[in-house]
């Protein structure tokens, strides 16, 4: 698999505080990588290191196969675009002037493509209106447009939907999906709004206490979080045999517990089990959301 | 780095503060010229040993640029760094693959040129008003003006560099207030040279080039012009190296 970003034991210390404590992370090309973690987990710090805004205290990372210690890392960074925390824009300039300014920074020979960029982010009708008079959502979209100048292959978005209204969230989501599907841009999006991430991400990285606690694909996560019925029985070997006879999909957890991924006819199931000498102690419907999966990984309130 | 300088200039030219500052510099040039003509010895300390008359007044006024232009340049630096750090636009430069060295020096170059423009605005008005009031025939210091101007620009650039270093040290927050406050303190050093009977102030006057402000006007600088040029150059080099080393290592939010 081709990776856009790989980190190896990446560390960042601020005096005595360890913001990143050995992060190992792999972002595949073409993915929308949901970077999940609570506030202070190290999401923004990692993005800052990748963008060159801060220097690692230890470990290393590869961006498009180039190590951060290599001089060519600056060239690799030309292939990325990023919105780190707040959008980096000139409030006294219009949307067009902001993009022109970024074109100059990038050294692009002409301003071709600015109209398309503005159209892509839905700011084509803003005219001479200054960015300081934009709504939060418009500023966020302008920040993304600035990040898209030069046609990056990898877009890093740090909490892009924070503070947005529902309409703004939908707009940003659709924009990210469009960029990924139509422009083939790999996207790393950090957020703690899990429900929103679940509508976008193809891969997830869960960070807690400055460490990646789990990396998982969306399909793996879906399998882990799928709806099931947790059955507590006296003998799961008998339960398994009966479920096989019923043609139901299941996972045996231990000697007395199993998850059944369907809604069986319980009367028939209970009678069949009773016939085999297996008692049903309890039945519980389970619907593990991304949120509960995340809590199970990072330890919930106790870990705060 | 050319790309960053180009972007920096467009940022400067898009800023209304750049034009306001040019007007303010020009305004002070006119004010000092007319004021010195009308009240040549107004409110001068008795021990300043400065005797202004119509023969030397135009030689003095250019030196007053070191009172006004450092503030003007600092305002520009402060607004530029405020935009870069508080609005995060410096991130766009680093993410775009520019090295920190390029970013640092492009800021220095843009701000130094802005400083020269402010100085030129001030001097243009001083010359214009001087010609109207005295006429060029009455002006006897043409030969030393080039050297004097170089000296003044270097002193002013020291203030600009210091402002850049302070802004990079702070990286956000009340950059504008801090830069202007420190610039004010720095400006105060220019009065040291007026109190020659105070040993401490006299010693400080020999260290800070701008303390010889009034002597510049006559090209009779304490310890010679070379010492002041050397100190200005040394200060610029120290500030540049310190600023660059720090900027290359610092964390940017």
Describe the structure.
The complex is a heterodimer of chains A (304) and B (253). Chain A has helices at 43-51, 73-77, 95-106, 114-120, 136-148, 166-182, 194-197, 218-225, 236-246, 266-275, 290-298, and strands spanning 3-14, 17-28, 32-36, 58-63, 66-67, 80-83, 154-158, 186-191, 203-208, 211-217, 228-233, 250-252, 257-260, 280-286. By secondary structure, chain A is an alpha/beta fold. Chain A has 2 domains: 3-216, P-loop containing nucleotide triphosphate hydrolases (Rossmann fold, 3-Layer(aba) Sandwich), CATH 3.40.50.300; 227-287, Alpha-Beta Plaits, CATH 3.30.70.100. In chain A, strand 9 (203-208) and strand 10 form a beta hairpin. Chain A is elongated. The mean pLDDT of chain A is 87. By secondary structure, chain B is mainly alpha-helical. Chain B has one domain. Chain B has helices at residues 2-14, 16-38, 57-60, 65-86, 89-95, 100-133, 142-170, 175-188, 199-207, 213-216, 225-249. Chain B is globular. The model of chain B has no long low-confidence stretch (mean pLDDT 79).
Give me a quick take on this structure:
The complex is a heterodimer of chains A (304) and B (253). Helices cover 35% and strands 28% of the residues of chain A.
Helix share bin of chain A: 25-40%
Number of helices of chain B: 11
> Low-confidence spans of chain A: pLDDT under 50, at least 5 residues?
none
List low-confidence stretches of chain B: none
Number of domains of chain A: 2
Q: What gross morphology of chain A would you assign?
A: elongated
% residues in beta strands of chain B? under 5%
Estimate the helix proportion of chain B, in percent. over 70%
Amount of beta strand of chain A: 25-35%
Per CATH, the architecture of the largest domain in chain A is 3-Layer(aba) Sandwich
CATH level-3 fold name of the largest domain in chain A = Rossmann fold
């Amino acid at each position: 698999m081709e990776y856009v970003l790989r980190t190896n034991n990446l560390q960042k210390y601020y005096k005595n505080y360890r913001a990143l404590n050995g992060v190992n992370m792999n972002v595949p090309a073409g993915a929308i990588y949901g970077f999940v973690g609570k506030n202070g987990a190290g999401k923004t710090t990692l993005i800052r290191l990748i963008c060159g805004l801060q220097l690692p205290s230890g470990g290393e990372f590869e961006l498009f196969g180039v190590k951060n210690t290599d001089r060519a890392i600056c060239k690799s960074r030309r292939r990325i675009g990023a919105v780190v925390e707040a959008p980096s824009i000139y409030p006294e300039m219009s949307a067009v002037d902001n993009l022109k300014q970024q074109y100059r920074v990038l050294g692009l020979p002409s301003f071709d493509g600015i109209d398309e960029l503005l159209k892509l982010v839905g700011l084509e009708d803003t005219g001479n209106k200054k960015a300081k008079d934009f709504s939060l959502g418009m500023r966020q979209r302008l920040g993304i447009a600035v990040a898209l100048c030069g046609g990056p292959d990898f877009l890093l978005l740090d909490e892009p939907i924070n503070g947005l209204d529902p309409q703004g969230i939908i707009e940003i989501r659709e924009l990210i999906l469009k960029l990924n599907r139509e422009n083939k841009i790999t996207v790393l999006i950090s957020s703690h709004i899990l429900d929103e991430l679940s509508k976008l991400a193809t891969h997830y990285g869960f960070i807690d206490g400055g460490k990646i606690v789990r990396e998982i694909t969306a399909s793996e996560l879906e399998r882990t979080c799928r709806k099931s019925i947790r059955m507590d029985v006296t003998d799961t070997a008998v339960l398994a045999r009966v479920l096989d006879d019923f043609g139901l999909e299941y996972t045996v957890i231990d000697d007395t517990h199993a998850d059944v991924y369907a809604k069986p006819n319980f009367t028939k199931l209970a009678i069949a089990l009773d016939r085999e000498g297996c008692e049903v102690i309890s039945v519980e419907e389970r619907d593990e959301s991304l949120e509960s999966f995340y809590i199970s990984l990072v330890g919930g309130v106790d870990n705060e | 780095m050319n790309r960053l300088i180009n972007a920096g200039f467009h940022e400067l030219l898009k800023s209304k503060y750049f034009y306001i500052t040019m007007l303010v510099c020009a305004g002070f040039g006119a004010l000092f010229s007319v004021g010195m003509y009308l009240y040549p010895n107004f409110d001068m300390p008795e021990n300043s040993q400065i005797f202004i008359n119509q023969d030397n007044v135009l030689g003095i006024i250019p030196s007053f640029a070191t009172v006004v232009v450092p503030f003007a340049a600092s305002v520009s630096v402060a607004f530029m760094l405020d935009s870069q750090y508080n609005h995060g636009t410096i991130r766009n430069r680093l993410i775009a693959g520019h090295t920190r060295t390029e970013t640092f020096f492009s800021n220095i170059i843009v701000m130094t040129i802005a400083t020269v423009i402010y100085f030129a605005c001030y001097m243009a008005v001083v010359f214009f008003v001087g010609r109207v009031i005295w006429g060029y025939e009455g002006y006897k210091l043409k030969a030393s003006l080039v050297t004097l101007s170089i000296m003044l620009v270097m002193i002013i650039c020291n203030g600009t560099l210091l402002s850049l270093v302070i802004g990079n040290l702070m990286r956000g927050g009340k950059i504008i207030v801090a830069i202007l406050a420190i610039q004010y303190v720095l400006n105060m050093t220019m009065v040291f040279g007026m109190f020659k009977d105070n040993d401490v102030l006299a010693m400080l006057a020999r260290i800070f080039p701008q303390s010889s402000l009034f002597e510049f006007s006559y090209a009779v600088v304490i310890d010679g012009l070379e010492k002041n040029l050397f100190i200005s150059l040394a200060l610029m080099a120290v500030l540049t190296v310190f600023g660059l080393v720090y900027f290359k290592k610092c964390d940017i939010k």
